[in-house]
Amino acid sequence: MKIAIVGAGITGLTAAYYLSKKGHKVYIFEKDKFAGGLASGFRAGDWYLERFYHHIFKDDKHIQQLTDDLGLNNIWLWKDCGAPIFYQGKMHPFSSPVDLLKFSPLSFINRIRTGLTSLYLLLNKDYRFFEGKKAAFWLKKYMGQESWKVIWRPLMIKKFGNFYSFISMTWMWARVNRRSRFLGYPKGGFQIIINKLVSEIKRNKGKIILNEEVKTLKELGSFDKTIFTGANPAFLKLASDLPEKYKNKLEKIEYFGTVLVLLTLKKPLSNWAYWMNINDNNIPFVGCVQHTNLVSKKYYKNLHPLYLVSYTSRKSKLFKQKDEEIFKKWVSYLKRINKDFNSSWIKNYQIIKEPFTQPIFKVDSYKDIPSFKTPIKNFYLANTSQIYPWDRAVNYAVGLGKRIAFSL
Ligand SMILES: Cc1cc2nc3c(=O)[nH]c(=O)nc-3n(C[C@H](O)[C@H](O)[C@H](O)COP(=O)(O)OP(=O)(O)OC[C@H]3O[C@@H](n4cnc5c(N)ncnc54)[C@H](O)[C@@H]3O)c2cc1C
């Protein structure tokens, strides 16, 4: 078959890799000038660095299977990282039961309660038990008001904005149940996997056409089948004559975007923490990721990439704000995290904005998860709106790409 794939992100590349391996003739159309989508990176020294921070968890089997299939043996570096919480001016380690027992912002009884509830989420293997339950309600009820106010509410507001109170408890379950303390990073960067996918697709006689935005479905009329891997709003733009009922279903899944400041520092902001949850409503970013606490600085010319990230609606003021304003404002908060920080530590910076990075799974979203088949004959959809109950991640993008490749 002659198959068109729209999007050279991880989903599109994985689908193209397995389809081309099966002997199909694949053509990937990508609007950007590079392959890899949200997981793409650029050279930052001997290794690539992702535009958006990236790591995997121990249980992320699809991506590890893919790297095995690609012959990228022994590619994963693993590090015990954890995710400390910055609260009331202090960074609190938060990765083990002992850390929780020492977590002074909570009363002792609420530390125990939070620990027991987390254990329950960890041991309960069936997400369907949490379907139809709101995370905000459930967490308040079982972990207690204090834990909700100190730990979860600030994080959920920063992750989902005004949608926070509608988020499904399945999201929270997935977060606790499948995430490991040990984080994995591919030697050389995620771009090594992307480059290998690209070269294998080409070896299998597939074509990757960059800088080519598909604007209407009609352009793809000559293909036997087409797979669209961009976000639902991009699909709706392209396929305007879809039946109303189907359009409404896709529109029900809303998306948040990402605004990220990537700083190259001469010194690390933190000497030990990789991922820092910023539970302080006055600080405009929710995550602060000191990449060189996951991967050695020696691969980045002895410099220290630091990501500051905020998730927000593409309609928010932040999306319209000028890069320099965002940079100045966000950097002004770094002294709160490390009092020794000084702007002379910054070698350079870039601001990266993407409008559709996170499908928002609300309490009743499970009823609206689209299938691969669309109402248009031979036209398929494979994107992160279908990975429910999991949070968007390369592992699930690989899983999707593989599944669609084997279901055509
Ligand atoms: C801030 C941030 C941090 C993240 N951190 C992690 C992490 O630590 N670990 C992890 O596993 N995952 C992480 N992810 C998620 C991960 O990057 C994504 O889940 C994954 O890359 C999605 O791949 P995809 O191919 O489905 O989508 P995308 O990467 O979005 O690819 C879709 C592609 O389609 C193209 N496209 C869309 N419309 C058209 C069109 N009309 N014509 C042509 N091309 C089109 C786009 O340009 C894009 O390249 C993170 C994401 C973000 C935003």
TrEMBL record:
Membrane-spanning ranges: none
Every Amine oxidase domain range: 10-404
Which InterPro entries does the entry mention? Amino_oxidase, FAD/NAD-bd_sf, Zeta_carotene_desat/Oxidored
Molecular function GO terms recorded: oxidoreductase activity
Q: Which SUPFAM superfamilies does the UniProt record give? A: FAD/NAD(P)-binding domain
Superkingdom of the source species: Bacteria
Which PANTHER family would you find in this protein's record?
AMINE OXIDASE, PROTOPORPHYRINOGEN OXIDASE
This protein is called what?
Amine oxidase domain-containing protein
